[in-house]
């Protein structure tokens, strides 16, 4: 009677039962033998002899395998005997894939070689997928050679993969422990094996040999045939004979570069060359006269000498194929000396004679290296924009920081505070011409109840005549300002109807500056006024002037200049005409009517004081004294 454990009970003390029939609790064997060879197998029973279903086929799988039979068109196939099991270490024993390759090794401390090519053989063992790298031994190489990488499974990446024979091919690079190997070819067995596995091989490459080793294989030159050239004869014949060339080095392509002049000396005694700088005053360079010291300069080097450290070691005849000679220098041609390109533009007389005697060259036309002066750019002045004076605006075209236009200082000193004033009609204006600066200003006297605000109408500025251009402007001058003349000021036309007596006095003192017609018209205009002035002076002579009247006259003049008031020239004639008997006295009613006609501000306190001073009695005014205050 077998004891089956109760299913579903918890694994607690007292709830589990032991099968007393089980006495063997050992593990089953996983090592088997077939055809005399041991191999690993999966266990079929567990501990205690319990059958394991995990490693066995199910009943459904057994039924499917037993019921399905392969069928052929021509009948049942002949049952082939089962093939014998052959392990990998037996099937691939002593079968090795062999690849030829190389790797490059840097040589940092050698002056003769910068890198080294080392040939290797890569071996792949099929029985356990291990690899090894072997380098053939070269006698007297001084390099540890032989086994570079011992036999082992080589890592392919950081994920734990290893190199497999599927990863190997010709013409590829593989990296083993940080060193890159180039596979160039393989042997016949390797080629046959890979092709049989369906791998398409790349074409083979040519093996690269070490350049330094190949150079060492070249036969050394044991004997050099001495030259038949007698250097002593050359020294005795050409001692102290030097060819002198004048050259230029153009370095303008570089930053802060320039054209610099040099002198090239070629010493005929020993075929040496020297380059000296040409210094000029205040050129800002240190006084180092020699650019290239006297030495033999190489023209052509031996091939494959690009890595020769010429800055450390001296150049010998073995590294140079050709040196610079006298035939390499010519006027009008370039020559390169130690990497610098010089243009020879002239030579001295001894050099010309030497080339003519030695080589028969007579063409020594010097080259002019002086650059022609840049073409002067014609400055075009833009049209006047109408802002400011024409001379001030023109200064903006001459410099970035405009300077004020030059003034005629002598003229300003001679005519300082000299102003010619005219009365012009548009409404009623006072036109002033400043003799110091040739500028015109226009002032409009304020008129009561006119509805027009008086004051400054035009500030001091130069007024061009109609028709003048901005290129050659023509401005108004004192000779253009006469009685009845029309002055066009920026589109507004003014007619001059009167002027100060100072204008006539200035014309009389400067007759050479004014035409005769202008002077005569001004005299005709002031003739009635002068006659009236003389009459007033005769009347006023009867009454001596008091000191108070003189002080008041000065105040009246300052008051009129401050308010830019210009009295009418016909005022004196009107007062004389009103004085029928010539007594010098006028009725107050008639006096105030004349003052109102000539716009005299009788309400002003200063004028009120003058009227009180000139009063005669209760109803009369002594007008000569009153008019004298206007005349100054």
UniProtKB/TrEMBL annotation:
GO terms for biological process: cilium-dependent cell motility; mitotic cytokinesis; mitotic spindle organization. It is found in: Cytoplasm, Cytoskeleton, Flagellum axoneme. Residues 1-20 are annotated as: Disordered. GO terms for molecular function: alpha-tubulin binding; calcium ion binding. GO terms for cellular component: axoneme; mitotic spindle. Gene3D superfamilies: 2.30.29.170, EF-hand. It comes from the Eukaryota. Keywords: Calcium, Cell projection, Cilium, Cytoplasm, Cytoskeleton, Flagellum, Metal-binding, Repeat. PANTHER family: EF-HAND DOMAIN C-TERMINAL CONTAINING PROTEIN, EF-HAND DOMAIN-CONTAINING PROTEIN 1. Residues 93-198, 239-359, 416-511 form the DM10 domain. It comes from Phrynocephalus forsythii. The keyword Metal-binding applies. This is EF-hand domain-containing protein 1. Residues 566-601 form the EF-hand domain.
């Amino acid at each position: 009677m077998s004891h089956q454990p109760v299913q579903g009970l918890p694994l607690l003390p007292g709830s589990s039962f032991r099968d007393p029939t089980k006495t063997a609790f050992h593990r089953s064997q996983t090592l088997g033998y077939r055809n005399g060879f041991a191999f690993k197998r999966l266990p079929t029973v567990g501990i205690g002899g319990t059958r394991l279903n995990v490693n066995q086929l199910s009943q459904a799988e057994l039924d499917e395998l037993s019921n399905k039979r392969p069928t052929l068109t021509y009948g049942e196939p002949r049952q082939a005997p089962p093939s014998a099991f052959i392990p990998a270490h037996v099937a691939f024993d002593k079968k090795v894939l062999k690849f030829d390759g190389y790797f490059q090794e840097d040589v940092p401390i050698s002056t003769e070689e910068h890198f080294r090519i080392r040939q290797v053989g890569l071996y792949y063992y099929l029985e356990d997928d291990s690899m090894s790298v072997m380098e053939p031994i070269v006698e007297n190489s001084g390099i540890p050679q032989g086994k570079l990488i011992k036999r082992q499974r080589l890592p392919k990446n950081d994920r734990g993969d290893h190199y497999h024979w599927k990863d190997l091919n010709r013409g590829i690079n593989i990296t083993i422990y940080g060193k890159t190997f180039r596979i160039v070819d393989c042997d016949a067995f390797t080629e046959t094996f890979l092709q049989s596995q369906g791998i398409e091989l790349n074409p083979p490459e040519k093996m690269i040999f070490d350049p330094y080793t190949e150079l060492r294989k070249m036969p050394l030159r044991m004997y050099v045939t001495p030259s038949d050239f007698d250097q002593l004869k050359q020294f005795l014949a050409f001692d102290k004979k030097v060819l002198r060339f004048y050259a230029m080095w153009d370095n303008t392509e570089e930053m802060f570069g320039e054209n610099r002049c040099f002198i090239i000396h070629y010493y005929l005694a020993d075929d040496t060359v020297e380059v000296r700088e040409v210094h000029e005053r205040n050129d800002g360079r240190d006084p180092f006269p020699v650019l290239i010291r006297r030495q033999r300069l190489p023209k052509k080097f031996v091939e494959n000498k690009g890595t020769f450290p010429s800055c450390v070691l001296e150049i010998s005849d073995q590294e140079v194929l050709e040196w610079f000679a006298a035939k390499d220098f010519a006027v009008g041609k370039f020559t390169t000396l130690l990497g610098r390109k010089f243009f020879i533009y002239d030579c001295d007389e001894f050099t010309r004679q030497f080339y003519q005697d030695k080589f028969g060259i007579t063409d020594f036309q010097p080259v002019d290296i002086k650059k022609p002066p840049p073409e002067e750019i014609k400055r075009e002045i833009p049209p006047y924009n109408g802002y400011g004076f024409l001379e001030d605006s023109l200064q903006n075209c001459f410099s970035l920081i405009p300077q004020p236009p030059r003034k005629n200082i002598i003229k300003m000193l001679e005519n300082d505070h000299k102003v010619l004033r005219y009365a012009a009609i548009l409404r009623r204006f006072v036109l002033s011409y400043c003799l110091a600066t040739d500028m015109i200003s226009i002032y409009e006297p304020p008129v009561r109840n006119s509805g027009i605000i008086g004051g400054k109408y035009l500030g001091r500025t130069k007024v061009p005549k109609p028709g003048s251009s901005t290129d050659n402007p023509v401005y108004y001058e004192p000779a253009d300002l006469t009685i009845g003349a029309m002055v066009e000021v920026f589109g507004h036309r003014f007619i001059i109807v009167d002027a100060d007596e100072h204008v006539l006095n200035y014309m009389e003192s400067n007759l050479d500056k004014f035409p005769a017609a202008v002077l005569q018209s001004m005299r005709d205009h002031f003739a009635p006024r002068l006659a009236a002035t003389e009459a007033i002076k005769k009347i006023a002579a009867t009454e001596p002037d008091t000191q108070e009247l003189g002080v008041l006259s000065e105040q009246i003049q300052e008051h009129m200049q401050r308010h830019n008031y210009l009295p009418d020239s016909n005022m004196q004639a009107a007062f004389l005409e009103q004085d029928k008997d010539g007594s010098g006295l006028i009725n107050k009613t008639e006096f105030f009517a004349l003052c109102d006609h000539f716009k005299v501000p009788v309400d002003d306190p200063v004028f009120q004081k003058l009227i009180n001073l000139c009063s005669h009695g209760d109803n009369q005014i002594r007008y000569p004294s009153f008019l004298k205050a206007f005349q100054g």
